[in-house]
Design a protein that fits this description.
The protein has helices spanning 26-37, 73-90, 135-147, 198-220, and strands at 4-7, 11-17, 39-44, 97-104, 119-122, 152-154, 184-191. With 234 residues, the protein is of the alpha/beta class. Helix 1 crosses helix 4. It contains four helices and seven strands, in the order E-E-H-E-H-E-E-H-E-E-H.
Length: 234
Amino acid sequence: MERVSTYKGSFPALIVVPHGHDDPNTAIIAESIVEEIDAYAVINRGWKRADQHDYYADKANCNNYHHIHEDVVREEFLDPILNYVERIHNKESGPPNIFVIHGVSNSIRQTVGGDALDVIIGYGEGKPPSYTCPIEFKHTFMCLLDKADLRVYQGKAGGAYSARRMSNIAQLFRTSEYLDEDVFTIQMEIIRELREDDYAAKETGIALSSVIKDTLYLRDYGKGYDSGVKFPYI
């Protein structure tokens, strides 16, 4: 089995799955999105999440800026991301939009009083923040998730889900080496229940594909969406 799968699409959304080997069925969610809207995708299937890179043991954290610059990991995982972003830039279909998909345990719901959590959105909140996309874009995406009956939280400053650390792949296009403010990135932590099996993961991907498509449509026309919902932090 190939360690990393890539899909060259036609829609200006790039789906990235750093931990497809360790986060069950996140790869299926990405594949479902690709099938629905012909998005681009880079999906790690074989690199096992680890603190230290070890090529011979197939170990690397593909959500870590330093690991993805190591030999082989770069060629398999980072280079396709950079190539697809450049390709989207060079087409007339709109600027690049990256959606990074992770998985989170159902137990996270216990910290918010029950079952009222499906997805956590990270966008670089912090003190100071390093926003991976404009607040209006993030809020539009979250409002559309809410409209699709997905219960949404956002990562708080200093929290585990904010996507604020500069080593986080969501920050890739906010680093000095790859700085590109036209690239918008959103990190999603998806509850295990929504990817419990192949069917659930596919249905989650279908729901997300509609939200992504509508969010990018509004971005193209310089508009946003506001349901009036105030989203909690975690």
